[in-house]
Amino acid sequence: MRDRLGPSYEEWESGVPRHLRDDPLWTLRVYRSAVYAGELGRRDAVLLAKQTGMTGLADQLVRATGSISANISEGYSRIGPRDRGKFYEYALGSARESRDWYYQAREELGAEVTEARLSLHTSICRVLTKLISNLRAH
Questions:
Q1: pLDDT tens readout for residues 84-123
Q2: How far is residue 120's CA from residue 109's CA, in Å, rounded to a whole number?
Q3: What angle do CA 106, 102, 13 make, to 5 degrees?
Q4: How far apart are CA 56 and CA 99, in angstroms?
Q5: pLDDT, mean over the chain
Q6: Which domain holds residue 68?
Q7: What whole-number distance in Å separates Cα of residue 75 and Cα of residue 88?
Q8: DSSP states of the chain as a string?
Q9: Which of 4, 18, 57, 138 has the most CB atoms within 10 Å of its CB?
Q10: Do 37 and 124 meet the contact criterion of CB atoms below 8 Å apart?
Q11: Reported pTM
Q12: Average pLDDT over residues 22-26
C-alpha cells in the first residue's frame, strides 16, 4: 500500500539534493512539507491523467501543489513582513486549492491516499495561517 501513498516524508527527504538542503529556507518545516506535497501532487496527477476525464483536474492539481512551495520561497526572500505575508497568503490559497482538488479526486485516488493528502495540506494550512498571523502582528 505504501506504493499508492508514495514515499514517506523521511524517505523523500533523504533524497533531496544538497542544493536545496543547504539553503536557509530549508530550515522552515512548512517549506519542506510544501515541497514534499508538490512531489506527491505530481505523482498523483500522473495517475489521474491516465483516467478518463481527469486530465484537467490533474493539471490543476500539479499547478496548485507546486505553487505552495514556490510562494513560500518567494515570500521567504522578501525583506519586509508585509511582502513576505502576501506570498505566504498566496501559498495558503494554493494549499487550500490543492486540498479541494484532492477532495474532488477522492474516488479516483481512494480513501487512504485522499486522507493522507488532505491531512498534509491541512497541516500546511495551519502553519501558514499562524505565520501570516504573526507577520500581521508586526
A1: 999 999 999 999 999 999 999 999 999 999 999 999 999 9
A2: 15
A3: 115
A4: 16
A5: 95
A6: 2-137
A7: 6
A8: -HHHH-S-HHHHHHTS-HHHHTSGGGG-HHHHHHHHHHHHHHHHHHHHHTSTT-HHHHHHHHHHHHHHHHHHHHHHT-SSHHHHHHHHHHHHHHHHHHHHHHHHTHHHH-HHHHHHHHHHHHHHHHHHHHHHHHHHH-
A9: 57
A10: yes
A11: 0.94
A12: 97
> Which CATH number does the domain housing residue 106 bear?
1.20.1440.60
Q: How confident is the model at residue 1 (pLDDT cuts 50, 70, 90)?
A: very low
The set of cell numbers assigned to 131 is 505565520
Instruction: Give me the residue label for grid cell 499562524.
Output: 130
Number of domains in the chain: 1
- Which residue bears the cell 487512504? 112
pLDDT computed for residue 2 by the predictor: 52
